[in-house]
Amino acid sequence: MPITVLVGNPKPKSRTLDAAVRLATRLGDGPPERVIDVVGLGPGLLGRDDPAVAEAVARVREAELLVVASPTFKATYTGLLKLFLDQIPSGGLAGVTAVPLMLGAGPAHALAPELLLKPVLVELGARCPAQGLYQLDSAYAEDPALGEWLTRWGPQLAPAPRPA
Amino acid sequence: MPITVLVGNPKPKSRTLDAAVRLATRLGDGPPERVIDVVGLGPGLLGRDDPAVAEAVARVREAELLVVASPTFKATYTGLLKLFLDQIPSGGLAGVTAVPLMLGAGPAHALAPELLLKPVLVELGARCPAQGLYQLDSAYAEDPALGEWLTRWGPQLAPAPRPA
Amino acid sequence: MPITVLVGNPKPKSRTLDAAVRLATRLGDGPPERVIDVVGLGPGLLGRDDPAVAEAVARVREAELLVVASPTFKATYTGLLKLFLDQIPSGGLAGVTAVPLMLGAGPAHALAPELLLKPVLVELGARCPAQGLYQLDSAYAEDPALGEWLTRWGPQLAPAPRPA
Amino acid sequence: MPITVLVGNPKPKSRTLDAAVRLATRLGDGPPERVIDVVGLGPGLLGRDDPAVAEAVARVREAELLVVASPTFKATYTGLLKLFLDQIPSGGLAGVTAVPLMLGAGPAHALAPELLLKPVLVELGARCPAQGLYQLDSAYAEDPALGEWLTRWGPQLAPAPRPA
């Protein structure tokens, strides 16, 4: 199953990106087909017709499984990630199965992927059958909670039927 | 597909129940197999070992597709519905595909099923691939938004793989 | 300042109640004037005209400062607490300053008081100027986070102007 | 009372800005002292040390009353607004009283200011004693709900005590 990773961390090649790639690799039995590090798109994110942004949006919309990852800023996802999501047209993630992933410095914001990030993806039309996942940025690489999450939710992440 | 309807309205045989049965009928090409009107369970809901409550919990957990419906009180689901959901053991809805449905007097609380009711069902282990649905209690029977919702989300509500 | 404590834990005299009384005592420089343990109201909570429930609602509405406390069930407040809040008329907490407090077994649900409980109180008309507070049920009595919270938010909890 | 308006609409001089200025004017018995239209800050928002952004952050932090306004994109506030809020240091709005305001094309997202925008401001340390306000972008100028909102919440928006 082709998997795309979308990361909204202002720091390039962040731990957020690494954690998202690890999750995608576990879900797909191999590395993700494509990784989009939003910060690399630069100021074109602030406008409406940037070709690189349009290309990235098109790639995201083609994904079968999309891991959407953000660090936790102010107890929720980053403005950088939302800036990219705002470029996706209404309903533009129909047919995409998406997984919200957030990393944070401590455990207090663990509800944010489910309560805050997932509804944005659903509003865009994505199917989000798994609970949002939260990992500590200091411990994601050996996170025992990841195994539990995969056991519980992994089977739900098979490809969605595409709308006719 | 056997569908169960769970309704948390303090008024028996409410419009909430009627709307939930209509939704279930559309999703299942026939009337739901079972309808649980929580208010009928009475004071046993306040304790821990009531046989009728335990029986209702068992029925809900057997559902393949579960429509969970509430009127909107104080901009969210009712205490009555949550009282019942609190009786379900941790992870007790694993293997159930659930649809959050809320009815309200006006349109202002339309985000409540997605932002507030769905996360409770997901926390219980349910798979909720469709956006939460909100309908006006004065207009649900001829609600044009229902057709749109069914087109968009209906295909996602096929039965989930049961955990091994 | 007269403070009222409202507790929605199915277990009477719970740690939730103890934590709420401690918080109220810190906020008011003395024990709270009144403590309402919702579970004691019994099956009258399920109807509409119970005199003891009506009396408790009236007491809550008279509070200047109201600590509203719940354990965390299914990642949010209890159905028992919401059952009581559903008995308060629309706008019925106007003029009340309220503090949402939740206790949980682990840190993962720390956003619940702010994201889930506070909006119910605000919808009822309460003024909630402080961030919702979350404490571990195993450690609330010596919680260092409480001191920080009091320093940051305590000054905001002076009585609200009553509506004319 | 000096009031600042902060607007996160990708279109300069938007209806969002106009609605926020109108609200500020009603709250302050005169036009706001300062209006910050985030879009004007440009690509500096994507970095960490832009002088114009730093200056705008400083101005926001000096406000006694801050109206924070956004259009509704994907059922929540814009990435542009969050990009600016992410530049504010942790706890940086302590001592500021803030009002979340969102505009939308229809009524369905009316819970977003209270459930989604307000918690970001509170996490930054702002005091948000009023319910988040939502207005239709087609009708905000003659919105009867504004008068009701002002009657109910206006008295709560007196200046907060500054932390010592």
From TrEMBL, chains A, B, C, D:
SUPFAM superfamilies named in the record: Flavoproteins (SSF52218)
Record GO terms (molecular function): oxidoreductase activity
Stretch forming the signal peptide: none
InterPro entries from the xrefs? Flavoprotein-like_sf (IPR029039), FMN_Rdtase-like_dom (IPR005025), NAD(P)H-dep_FMN_reductase (IPR051814)
> What keywords are assigned to this protein?
Flavoprotein, FMN, Oxidoreductase
In its keyword annotation, does this UniProt entry include Oxidoreductase? Answer: yes
Task: List, alphabetically, the PANTHER family matched.
Answer: FMN REDUCTASE (NADPH)
How is this protein named in the record?
Answer: NADPH-dependent oxidoreductase
